[in-house]
Amino acid sequence: MDPLDLLSGDAHTFIEEVWGRRIHVHTIPEADLAGLFDIEQADHLITQTAMRTPQLRLAQSGSVLAESRFTRQASIAGKPMTGLIDPRNVLDLFSDGATIVFQGLQRYWEPLRQLVRGLETALGHPCQANAYLTPPGSQGFALHSDSHDVFVFQTFGAKEWEVHDDAGAHQVRMVPGTSMYLPTGTPHMARTQATASLHVTIGINRYVWRDLVRRVVDPILASDALAGPLPADLFADPDALAAALRAKLAEVADAVRTSEVEPMLASFERTFGSGRQPVLGGGLLDRLDVTDLTADTPVRRRPGSTCVIRPDGERLRLLLGDRVLTVPARIAGAVDDIAGQSGAFTAADVADHLDTDSAVVLVRRLVREGLLEVVR
């Protein structure tokens, strides 16, 4: 399923008509939410893992609680570990009305890691995932707005939201299967009633035109042409100084107009396409199996993997999400074939493009790089 379909209904309609423009609420089949992050999984992270701050924080009545109230120290092999979550204190504070906030879940919870990677691929903008567990009759945060777009979907219990737009305040009741999209700057607050609530928030840190313009303008401003000192007796002739400044601004404008933006855009894409969170579930087992991989060993695209293929002279540049891999351009047919696979296949299946031994070498490499996984 397309991650946008999961969070917003029709993906094309969302991008063309909704994104950045208006609040949007829709219903997701609860089966589609299974395993993403529910109450049992929240319980597991709190009580059975060694979480540390800032992975988790607590808030109550609009204020973030001091970490000292729910953390402890420990050591492993004589080395101190600070900021460890004390599960008993966390549960006590939760019972007293505190909201538990799981921060950056895409970094340590695989289902949300894959969801975030899919959204980043679909939208071309960085994303992150938090979750908020609120006890009955409580409110974690006062009315506020975020500096990024958010998707919210409920996975347990219920929560009453107050959301503001140009038409005024709206009440939205979030129950399991409800998803809501809020554009950047939308004022909102939420409170539980008779039941506890767990919802996941996907933040979209949208790039803006300023991000691209700076990449063009900053090197021009750092050039030697603008490094010369201003004249002595600087303000003796304001008209002459203004004329000189206009001349420099004209030089900058000319340099901006004639800038080659294509290399900058390629670099921008490369930074985005190789700087995402790794998706490597099962990678250790693959490393153990890859040396025995043959032409008949079934493999498949790793769930959540991405592969953007860009020509680069006599090489191909593969943007794999968390890294860049370069391969000879002459094997483009095999790479395109492998990247387009939707099910299990073998190295022998790409024999139309490479001899069998070369196909095995390529498939082994792509398993090591995390694009493919061995089917067990």
Automatic annotation (TrEMBL):
One Pfam family linked to the record = JmjC_2
The record's section on InterPro entries has: JmjC_dom, NO66-like
The cofactors it requires, by name, are:
Fe(2+)
Q: Does the keyword field hold Methyltransferase?
A: no
> Which residues belong to the signal peptide in this entry?
none
Residues of the JmjC domain = 126-166
Per the UniProt record, which residue ranges are transmembrane? none
Keywords carried by this UniProt record: Iron, Metal-binding
Q: Which SUPFAM superfamilies match?
A: Clavaminate synthase-like
PANTHER family per UniProt: MINA53 MYC INDUCED NUCLEAR ANTIGEN (PTHR13096), RIBOSOMAL OXYGENASE 1 (PTHR13096:SF8)
| Protein's recorded name | Cupin domain-containing protein
Species of the source: Propioniciclava soli
